[in-house]
Every structure is written in structure tokens, then in C-alpha cells.
Amino acid sequence: MNQYVEDLQNSILENLNKAVDNRNLYYNNLTKTIVVLIFFVLLFMLCKKGLNRMNLDPNKQRRIHRRIKNTLLTLCLILISIIWINALNSLVIILILLALFAAVLIRSTLDNIIGWYFIRKRHYFKLNQRIEIGDKIGKVVGVNFFYFEIAEIKNWLTSESFTGRIIKIPNKEILDNEVFNYNYLNQMVRQEISFIIRHDSNYHDAKKIVEETLHTYYENEIYSMNDGELYEKLNIPSEPSFHLDIAESGLVLSCQFLVDFYKVSAVKTKLNETILEAFNTHPEIEFAVLEIKQVN
């Protein structure tokens, strides 16, 4: 066995020495390798520039960017292998290819472990926190070396409720995607509700109804738990805000407010019910109706 290993080492060294001794072939292959590297770097930069001009969705653009990079890298490695295959012994080439194959196999595992390290040490998120990564939203229910699990929220649902599905996401995704943590500092988020009333409606009274409803909600739910100093430091508005816009279909009344993200659906439903009931009983407030005219 020892003799076999020794013969193998001697064979590899002998072939490497032959390749190095043949200086002309060595320099030619080195020159070709540099040209190939420059070509693929320029091609990647050109593809990246063209991709940035397409104004795609950021998540889709990152996925395409990653595929282009991996494809060009694979082609570059193949061409470089072809260049050197005549200069080195086939056994050495096989060993190099096996090493590259092994590197590709363990790369994903290493990326996941690195992602796990960042999750733990950089505090990207913790258990029971609500996060958004890519097009997925959910509550973190588990984290291990290779992936983290979230209880999915919303997706095909119109309300922000749990779908009942558990999604396993590789840890390496945090290295390539933005991670939004809904309660990194606390569990309050801003939400919005809006109503469209006729142009001739009494928008002063409509605004008053909305503001009074929000004030009552804040008195009962927000002021007791809101960290005013935190929002002042972060320059985040904590008070409710009211907006009026004029559209072709009517007057658009919208308001933004803070809400515990665990109670978003329940709070929005309660506010809508209260405001709609007040609008319906007011003689000078009518909802805009979309008119469809049929032309014969």
C-alpha cells in the first residue's frame, strides 16, 4: 500500500515537472488562461450592466444575477481545464476536477453554516419574531445549522393570517436577500386603511369621524404600550396621520396608524366596521359608486 502511494506521488510530481520544464507550452497556456479570465470578467460586467438597465423586481434581479454568475464561472472553469489538459497529466486533471466538484458540493453547506453564524451573532432574527425574506413572510419557529423555519403568513390570503404551512429556508438566503424584521426593536408596524366617498360628500365630517375613531383606538390600545422615546430616536412617526386625495372616482380618505403586527387583521376589521357604520348613518356622506356605461 505504501509503495502504491509513493509511486502515485512520484508519478504526479514527474508529470508536473515535465509540464513546468516545457516552458513554451507553460507560458502559452498561462497567456490563454489570462485571456479567458479577462474575457469572462468583461462579459460578466456587461451582463450585470444590462441587467441593471432592465428595471426588474429586486428579488428577480438577484436570482438572475446569481444564475449568470454561476453559469459564467462554470464555463470559465471548463475552458481553463481544456487549456491545461494537454500540459498536465490526465490523472492530475481528474484530481483537480474532483477537487472542484467537492468544493461545489460543500459550498452550499458552508454557506448555510456561515448564514447560521450571522443569524446567531449578528442577531438577524430570533424565535417568534416575524420576518420577511424575498417573497416569504412568516414567524420564525426554528433555526439550525442548515436552515430556519417560518410559519407562513398571508401569501394567497387577503388578511395577514397564518396559512398553516411551515417553510424551510436555507440559511444562505440571508446572504443574498434583504431580511425585514418586523419586531427587531418592538412589534409595532404601521398600517393603512382608506375609503372613497363622493366628491360632493361632507369630507370635513368624514375626516372627523376617522380621526375620532383612531383617537379612541390609540387611547385603548397604543398609548399604554408605545415606546415614544424609541420612535423619536428612529425618527418614525408614532401618531396617526390622515390624508385626503382627489381621484376621478371620488375623494380618497386614507389614514395610517400603528398596530401590533399580531393583531393587524383584527384591528383593521374593527376600525373599518366603526368608520363604515358612522359613514352610513351620516346624511351628507356617501360612498363613491363606480359607474359603468354601456355604449350601443
Automatic annotation (TrEMBL):
SUPFAM superfamilies reported for this sequence: Sm-like ribonucleoproteins (SSF50182)
Domain Mechanosensitive ion channel MscS: 109-183
One Gene Ontology molecular-function label: mechanosensitive monoatomic ion channel activity
Entry's transmembrane regions: 25-47, 68-85, 91-119
Keyword Membrane: yes
Compartment list: Membrane
Key words of the record: Membrane, Transmembrane, Transmembrane helix
GO cellular component entries: membrane
Classification via Pfam families: MS_channel_2nd
PANTHER family per the UniProt record, alphabetical: SMALL-CONDUCTANCE MECHANOSENSITIVE CHANNEL
Protein name: Mechanosensitive ion channel family protein
Organism: Vagococcus fluvialis
